[in-house]
């Protein structure tokens, strides 16, 4: 949501690169769960600027293929530029609701924090089922924005989460729904696990969770009183800060 409620958003590619630099642990877990081997063909749907493509390309080696797809041309441009000299990596403009690939094209597919933004998660999962080979593995990592824990004023934490869930993120609680949605789409679900990085630095966390920007938006939307919002932000900046998001990592497979 660019410039929502008159509050400018940061550069999207820089935001995603920043998250990737901090979220090393859950991203490594998601990569390990993919069980990549040389020669496999992998789809990264909603690849953004391509933060995860290199690790996948290394794992499938030159005999494999990594295809990144994103609906945003600026992301495709950024990722394409990065992987210009990597023959086994291709980045394509596309929408997860209607992928341009043949049925059973991929051995593996993944999404990392992209299903939270799509118009119809069930339709995207149906597409992923179609383009995976029988027995192919799907791995998805998504947050649960209603479960963002911030030490301090509990009512403000709740008001902030309510605003983000109702106004800022389309499918803000899709993380907790992953297994149910995947089964409904026809996948066999092997595992759901959680990952919760803990942040102790307000400035670092603010870049990812947008406490300052989204509190200002909530104030402008009438969801939070200005005095309460400004006091909460001042306390978070001044105090012994702690915040932790809840990430769900789901492992599923297309039935044989
Ligand atoms: C939060 S970013 C995550 C990017 C990347 N997966 C990462 O971990 O750095 C979500 C991405 O999903 C993309 N996206 C949103 N809806 C999409 C759709 N319908 N089809 C394909 N990509 C989509 C956005 O353009 C954005 O680049």
From TrEMBL:
CDD domains: AdoMet_MTases. One of its GO terms (biological process) is methylation. The keyword Thylakoid does not apply. GO terms for molecular function: S-adenosylmethionine-dependent methyltransferase activity. Gene3D superfamilies: Vaccinia Virus protein VP39. Residues 42-136 form the Methyltransferase domain. The keyword Transferase applies. Keywords: Methyltransferase, Transferase. InterPro entries: Methyltransf_25 (IPR041698), SAM-dependent_MTases_sf (IPR029063). This is Methyltransferase domain-containing protein. It comes from Lentzea alba. The lineage of its organism: Bacteria, Bacillati, Actinomycetota, Actinomycetes, Pseudonocardiales.
């Amino acid at each position: 949501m660019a410039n929502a409620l008159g509050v400018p958003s940061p550069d999207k590619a820089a935001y995603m690169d920043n998250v990737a630099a901090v979220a090393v642990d859950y991203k490594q877990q998601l990569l390990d769960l993919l069980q990549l081997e040389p020669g496999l063909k992998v789809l990264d749907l909603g690849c953004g600027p391509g933060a995860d493509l290199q690790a996948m390309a290394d794992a499938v080696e030159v005999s494999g293929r990594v295809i990144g797809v994103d609906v945003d041309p600026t992301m495709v441009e950024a990722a394409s530029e990065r992987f210009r000299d990597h023959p086994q990596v291709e980045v394509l403009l596309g929408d997860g609701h209607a992928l341009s690939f043949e049925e059973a094209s991929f051995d593996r597919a993944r999404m990392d924090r992209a299903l939270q933004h799509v118009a119809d998660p069930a339709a995207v999962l149906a597409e992923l089922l179609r383009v995976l080979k029988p027995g192919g593995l799907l791995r998805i990592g998504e947050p649960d924005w209603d479960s963002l824990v911030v030490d301090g004023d509990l009512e403000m934490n709740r008001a902030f989460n309510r605003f983000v869930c109702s106004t800022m993120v389309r499918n803000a609680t899709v993380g907790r729904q992953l297994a149910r949605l995947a089964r409904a789409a026809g996948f066999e679900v092997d595992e759901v696990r959680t990952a919760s990085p803990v942040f102790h630095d307000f400035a670092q966390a603010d870049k990812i969770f947008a406490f300052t920007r989204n509190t200002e938006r909530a104030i402008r939307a009438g969801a939070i009183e200005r005095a309460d919002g400004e006091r909460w932000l001042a306390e978070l900046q001044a105090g012994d800060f702690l915040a932790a998001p809840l990430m769900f990592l789901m492992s599923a497979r297309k039935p044989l």
